[in-house]
């Protein structure tokens, strides 16, 4: 594995004497695949890393990995936001973490281009780093459509910031409705439209409706029936991963809570704070949540690696990029053949269940290739899915068994508690769930955290402090999903 020193560029902030001259493994992305691959690699290459014969560099936009299945519970206040994320610098102690955004990859030259906060401040433009082995795992981004008003008024539900911002926004709308004398404003503030009937949309809607219904008891002039929740889904079913029967049960459960579930319906426009649906309905609303699917990260289009018609990297069952040496991929960015499906045309679904397992095989194969050992195929039969519909409600279809209600909700919690990385996070989440069962829910909105300098700017500008209007938030400021 030892290579002669070359004139390669430096990792930002690293002195020349500290850079090993051995094999450089570059991991683009710090999500499921990026973090788990780097974690397994630092264990398998412990000796090489200690001797300076190898180095692992992780370039990621955030210094943490977000455990996305817990976003709905974080939005509902059941889990602290800090416990939904895993700090990469602590977990990947043997790797070099660079907080930056990969913008292009030239694999023919073994170089990647990226930007950091420092390059923006310095005004030097994008930096370039060379590598010997590439693991490309940038994940996915929200898949949006050219719907009028979507970019201006909608909010996504893919990041922790969006989840916590949405919680603050929902409670803020209840504050507005409680204080206004305008019936139209009150109605719009209490109308919440969710677009997309997959996991993200259904779980976010279920948890937030549960939270808002509980919170309404502390308002003297709001009742749970005043809040209007609408789920818009373009297909004829929701939660397809749990099967048709459990999907129908989920619809019945949501409708029993006065949630308006509209199937085979699309959002045509949300301009001027009015959600216009394809069935002719129109709802004045200050809240449109977009959860209608994801697409591969745009950085894949800025590479010279082969992609399929959906923009994902063409990969082999060994998690190498097809027809390319020294390039590896898994997760949302990779089109990996599903060997358990019995057909070469079937690909592994881009979900966390495959991503975590693919990362382990990827790391093992990469280490094996460096040591001259044979590679293994990735094969994992999909075991099923679990979904939460709010507190004590859920659906599950696992190993052919179908569960609903409290048992499914409990299975959802047990499964994800077992999957959230690190013992530290498991213990903290379990402690929070235990305390939540003993005490009342938190109903506080901390929306002012999104603008921490607003009060000082108001005071410095001669305002009156807390009563001075703050900068617009997610309900009126442009939001890019």
TrEMBL record:
SUPFAM superfamilies for this protein: FAD/NAD(P)-binding domain
Feature: compositional bias, Basic and acidic residues: 472-481
UniProt keywords, alphabetically: FAD, Flavoprotein, NAD, Oxidoreductase
Pfam family, one: Pyr_redox_2
Parts of the chain that traverse the membrane: none
Entry keyword Cytoplasm: no
Region (Disordered): 1-21, 455-481
Record-annotated FAD/NAD(P)-binding domain positions: 24-343
Classification via InterPro entries: FAD/NAD-bd_sf, FAD/NAD-binding_dom, NDH-2
Keyword NAD: yes
Family: Belongs to the NADH dehydrogenase family.
Record protein name field: NAD(P)/FAD-dependent oxidoreductase
Origin species: Streptomyces yaizuensis
């Amino acid at each position: 594995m030892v290579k002669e020193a070359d004139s390669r560029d430096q990792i930002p902030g690293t002195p020349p004497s500290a850079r090993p001259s051995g094999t450089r493994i570059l991991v683009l992305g710090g999500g499921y695949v990026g973090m788990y691959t780097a974690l397994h690699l630092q264990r398998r290459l412990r000796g090489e890393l200690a001797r300076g014969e190898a180095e692992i560099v992780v370039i990621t936009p955030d210094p943490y990995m977000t455990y996305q299945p817990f976003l709905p519970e974080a939005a509902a206040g059941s889990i602290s936001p800090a416990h939904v994320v895993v700090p990469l610098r602590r977990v990947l102690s043997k790797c070099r973490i660079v907080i930056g955004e990969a913008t292009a990859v030239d694999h023919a030259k073994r170089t990647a281009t990226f930007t950091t906060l420092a390059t923006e401040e310095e005004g030097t433009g994008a930096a370039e780093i060379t590598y010997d082995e590439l693991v490309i795992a940038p994940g996915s981004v929200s898949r949006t459509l050219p719907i009028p008003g979507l970019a201006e008024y909608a909010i996504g539900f893919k990041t922790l910031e969006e989840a916590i911002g949405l919680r603050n926004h929902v409670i803020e709308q209840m504050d507005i409705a409680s204080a206004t004398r305008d019936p139209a404003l009150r109605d719009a503030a209490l109308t919440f439209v969710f677009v997309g009937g997959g996991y993200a949309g259904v779980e976010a809607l279920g948890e937030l409706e549960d939270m808002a219904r509980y919170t309404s008891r502390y308002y003297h002039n709001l009742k749970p029936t005043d809040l209007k929740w609408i789920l818009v889904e373009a297909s004829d079913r929701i939660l397809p991963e749990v099967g048709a029967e459990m999907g129908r049960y989920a619809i019945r459960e949501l409708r029993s809570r006065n949630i308006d579930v509209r199937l085979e319906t699309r959002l045509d426009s949300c301009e001027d704070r009015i959600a216009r649906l394809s069935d002719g309905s129109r709802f004045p609303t200050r809240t449109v949540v977009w959860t209608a699917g994801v697409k591969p990260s745009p950085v894949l289009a800025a590479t010279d690696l082969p992609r399929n018609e959906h923009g994902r990297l063409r990969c082999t069952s060994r998690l190498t990029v097809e027809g390319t040496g020294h390039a590896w991929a898994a997760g949302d960015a990779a089109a990996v053949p599903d060997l358990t499906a019995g057909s070469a045309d079937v690909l592994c679904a881009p979900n966390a269940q495959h991503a975590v397992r693919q990362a382990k095989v990827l790391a093992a194969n990469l280490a094996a290739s460096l040591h001259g050992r044979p590679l293994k195929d990735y094969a994992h039969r999909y075991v099923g899915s679990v979904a939460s519909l709010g507190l004590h409600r859920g659906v599950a279809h696992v190993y052919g068994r179908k569960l609903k209600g409290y048992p499914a909700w409990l299975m959802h919690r047990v499964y994800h508690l077992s999957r959230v990385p690190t013992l530290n996070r498991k213990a903290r989440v379990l402690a929070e769930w235990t305390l939540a069962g003993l005490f009342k829910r938190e109903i506080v909105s901390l929306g002012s955290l999104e603008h921490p300098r607003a009060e000082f700017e108001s005071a410095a500008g001669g305002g009156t402090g807390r009563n001075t209007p703050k900068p617009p938030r997610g309900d009126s400021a442009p939001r890019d999903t």
